[in-house]
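Question thread 4412

I'm putting together a teaching handout and wanted feedback from people who do this every day. The idea is simple: show students a protein as raw sequence, then show them the structure tokens that encode its fold, then repeat with a second protein so they can compare. Below is the first pair exactly as I plan to print it.
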Amino acid sequence: MAGDAPSRLGRLMYSGILAYMAIDGFRNNDKRVGIAEEKGVPMPEVMVPFSTGMLLVANVGILLWRFPRLAAGAVLVFFAGTTPVIHDFWDQEGGERQGNKINFLKNVALMGCAVMLLDAAGEDAGGDDA
């Protein structure tokens, strides 16, 4: 029903995954900066912790359903920006290719959920169904 926040259980499950990803990102920041540097990400020592922090903050917004358009939009930007750059499985071979293909597809699924939440946030705010 328009005007209602999406399922609390669904948001909790989604937020749990995003929180795990963000916390793991902070714990392994040096490794992730190195990967981003190898992939040609500009200023990886700034961009990696910034994007990880953006994911964590946006995650809280989704969980609590506060500023849901901004939160879902930020999650969408995170995945749209990082997924094709970091998980470019089409340029890899063997096990590295398979692992990155799995992570690419997982991220696309998480991005799809962010799109649905963005749509729900638009309905919640009286927006259109776009």
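The second pair follows. I'd like the answer to focus on this one:
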Amino acid sequence: MAGGSPSPSRPGATYAGAGVDIAAGDEAVERIRDIVATTARPEVLGGIGGFGGSFAFDPARFRRPVLVASTDGVGTKAIVAQAAGRLDTIGIDLVAMCVDDIVCVGAEPLFLLDYVATGKLDAGQMESLVAGVAEGCRQAGCALLGGEMAEHPGAMAPGEFDLAGFAVGVVERDASLGPARVAAGDVLVGLASPNLRSNGYTLARHVLLERAGRSLDDPAWEGAGHTLADELLLPSVIYAPAVLAALRAGGGAASGAASGAASGAASSGAVHAAAHITGGGIPGNLSRILPTGCDAVVDGTWARPRIFEEIQRLGDVADDEMARVFNLGLGMILAVAADAVEPVIEALAAAGRRGSVVGSVARGTGRVTLAPGGRS
């Protein structure tokens, strides 16, 4: 081996000296081992620490299973979490962004992998982040199958981090939700979102922290009993379990998957499609479930959380811009058969999520019309 021994006056280079602490990584893995175990489903084989996570998928539960996958991150909400020093809930946001995408196809979330990159690995910080991911997985009913913690000195400053995830679910092939099931006359049922969830934070930070000069320690708004940090770091609602409950109640895509029994011929179901309201807002995401020849007409009468009013007022943000960026109080919208709206809303309520009629599908050219206003 070339190079010889290091000079006594100049110690040899080490990975730790260059900025990567393997020992801290090992400590972080040990800290999260028991946390990850709390998310295990019966199909999970082994624990963390191997080269890959193993999931013993049971195809007998389905006639023609289709695996559905999605990947996402938490965006610049991570900057708010870092600035506030609160890292234990942002993992819930990560899970929500991933599993609520795949449930829009009708898929039951099975497992999730996470990826954390940081400038300097701190075992306590990693434990807090992964604890949030694990809590999100428990809420979603999926396993945290594995992940990666990467230390990137030079690319990121100490304390900085980014968080990403990858989720996999399953649905019967002939029971998938989507535009092919949607028709004029369908009713739009919105699921309430109490906050920004994990979208639009670049604009929110610009308006609230830069333009308005607010501090994260200030009241969220005049007279609020909680801080702006409290408001901005409220974790995202995870809608997947409630949507699956609505599908089961309506005889749709999740009926066989969620029961654990092989299903018969798939029903068209009461729920025809689902739109996860993330980046692009209501118009940008609702348009993704419209078939050719249909419009979505959204009435704008649901209650909008106060935070949206504050952002719009302090930033003088136009209505169209608000609608393109934020969820405005609806985190998920379902297209439902007109004669099944009541049982679907009841199923959502039984699963702990409030749903209300917010519009309808009509003949048209693929447009989404969003009425201005809304109740705050």
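Top answer:
Good format. For the second protein you could add a caption like this: The chain has a mean pLDDT of 89. The longest helix spans residues 123-140.
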